[in-house]
Amino acid sequence: MNSRLLSIVRKEFIQLFRDKRLLALILILPLVQLFLLGYAATNEVRNIPIAVFDQSHSPEGRALLDSYRASDYFLLAYSVNSDTELRQLIEKGQAGVGLIIPPDYATRLQEGNAQVAFILDGSDPTMATTALSAAQLIAQSHATRLLAEKLARSGVNLELQPPVELRTTVWYNPDMVSAYFMIPGVIGMILFAITAILTATSVVRERERGTIEQLIVTPIRPWELMVGKILPYVLLSLFDTFAVIAVGHFWFGVPVRGSLLLIALLSALFLLSGLGIGLFASTIANTQQEAMLTVFMTLLPAIFLSGFFFPLQNMPRFLQIISYFIPLRYFLKIIRVLLLKGVGIESIQGDVIALAVFGIMIMGAAFYP
Prior knowledge:
The chain is mainly alpha-helical and about 375 residues long.
């Protein structure tokens, strides 16, 4: 690295450390985002409040309620005395589920045709879908147990065995913790957002302050100026990346099964796209506000169409096609595979090639707009 380039890098670091708010944004905001998404952004549904209208008041009815109480999916929060009370609790959002046990539940249970009503609040489809699946499984398990007890009381020595037994095994994330999915995504968002936004504003800031002309008349070559401006943000972004990995591993328990060297190299490859977008925004913008808005025009589609929050498989076909043109899509797959599965580069070589192609194309468009 020559002395001219070192001078630009030194100058940029001095400006960064003078701007305390910007430095705090770079170093603290990623960790704040990590904790918010690690704890808050989850699709796991637990402790759904149930309003129970038990008209039976029988031991059989209480046994059914015990089956739901034993599951961590449901919380028997309310006991009501009428359909009207149950409806009001659901309408107010205090209860997500209503369970109605009819007066003749015990009698019909002895006859073998008992029914209960399970009412769901469909205004939250995620909660309703989870509650419906859990309620059906609990009811089936309870019914099987009752049938086995009935056969035992009748003296029939018969072991109930279903014709098909499903034995499940979950790889890589056995407890299916949402943080294991979200935290690698935070790494991608940090690399993309910090490099694109800060690179765009740093170049335009020189233009706004009138210092860009002073830099141009110096012996510094154009490529040295650009590299010197972006290199500090590259180093800070990589620092943030490993800080998020460390906190995610030691605090949230996210496994790090892949090579840290490979993660660093592919993160640096992904930085080409973020840096290119930032440089391109700086060439077409006259103010920092314009540069920020230009970057946000690419940031928002990247968030929603990369698989960061929502599964790509659930999107309409035309949105899936658009997502192929978003570099963050490929990096999220790469970082999640490396952290959780610990595979080598041969398993993700297609995504690596796509990331390299996009990085070169975007950087080329930035240098030759």
